[in-house]
């Protein structure tokens, strides 16, 4: 089963990020028509008219809800629920993610091609990723978790009269499968990833 996403997703992967440890492949496998994975320093040239955002807590980052409100004030129209899958009606048409450890992401973010993009931040939620990152809190999400969170927030912000009903939940299919396998082998309370602080 392949997904059709409402926007395009680009994932910029650090060259030292091991494919087997990354969840970027989960997204690309389940939504191959809408997801591209690039290995840094390979970054596409983005057209500023394309409504591209970088999902990263960079300078001047704003929430997705605030971005949608600004878009509505500018355009004066709100997408109808049945047309939420049409990128032309959404405040963004493409979202860029950095796939790396937190320390590695800072180096990639210094690239002017990414710094030129407006940044959005996601609402904080606890990660269920089993991979431990030293000195990182539980709300640092795996790439597939972050993509899923963006899509849910985008849906909620653009269709205020329609509750989210699990349209993108299957995007976590491979993540859930791996989570179950890990927990078959190890006890949840023994995994270092789940002992990280919440702040």
Write the layout of secondary structure elements.
Blueprint: E1 8-13, H1 24-30, E2 35-39, E3 52-55, E4 62-63, H2 64-75, E5 94-99, H3 102-109, H4 112-115, E6 119-121, H5 143-158, H6 173-185
Parallel strand pairs: 1-2, 1-5, 3-5, 3-6, 4-6
Quick synopsis:
It is built from six helices and six strands, in the order βαβββαβααβαα. The protein is α/β, with parallel strands linked by helices and 199 residues long. Strands 2-1-5-3-6-4 form a six-stranded parallel beta sheet.
Helix content: 25-40%
**Estimated radius of gyration:** 17 Å
Strand content: 5-15%
SSE string, helix = H, strand = E? EHEEEHEHHEHH
Strand order of the biggest β-sheet:
2-1-5-3-6-4
Provide mean pLDDT, rounded.
82
Spans where pLDDT lies below 50 across 5 or more residues:
none
Shape: globular
Q: Tally of extended strands?
A: 6
How far apart the termini lie comes to 37 Å
Biggest beta sheet summary: 6 strands, parallel
Structural class: alpha/beta
Total helical elements: 6
* Domain tally: 1
Which short descriptors sum up this protein?
6-stranded parallel sheet, 6 strands, alpha/beta, 199 residues
Describe the structure.
The protein is α/β, with parallel strands linked by helices. It has one domain (8-194). Helices cover 30% and strands 13% of the residues. The chain has 6 helices and 6 strands, in the order βαβββαβααβαα. It has a 6-stranded parallel sheet with strand order 2-1-5-3-6-4. Strand 1, helix 1 (24-30) and strand 2 form a beta-alpha-beta unit. Helix 2 runs parallel beside helix 5 (143-158). The N and C termini lie far apart (37 Å).
């Amino acid at each position: 089963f392949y997904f059709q996403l409402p926007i395009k997703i680009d994932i910029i992967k650090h060259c030292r990020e091991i494919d087997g440890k990354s969840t970027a492949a989960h997204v690309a496998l389940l939504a191959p028509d809408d997801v591209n994975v690039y290995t840094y320093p390979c970054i596409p040239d983005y057209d500023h008219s394309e409504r591209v955002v970088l999902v990263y807590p960079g300078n001047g980052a704003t929430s997705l809800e605030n971005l949608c409100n600004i878009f509505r004030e500018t355009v004066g129209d709100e997408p109808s629920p049945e047309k939420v899958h049409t990128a032309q009606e959404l405040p963004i048409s493409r979202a860029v993610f950095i796939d790396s450890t937190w320390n590695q992401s800072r180096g990639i973010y210094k690239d002017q091609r990414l710094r030129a993009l407006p940044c959005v931040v996601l609402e904080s939620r606890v990660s269920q990723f089993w991979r431990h990152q030293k000195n990182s809190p539980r709300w640092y999400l795996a790439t597939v978790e972050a993509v899923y969170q963006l899509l849910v927030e985008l849906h909620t912000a653009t269709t205020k009269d329609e509750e989210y009903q699990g349209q993108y939940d299957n995007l976590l299919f491979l993540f859930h499968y791996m989570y179950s396998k890990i927990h078959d082998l190890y006890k949840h309370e023994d995994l270092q990833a789940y002992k990280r602080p919440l702040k």
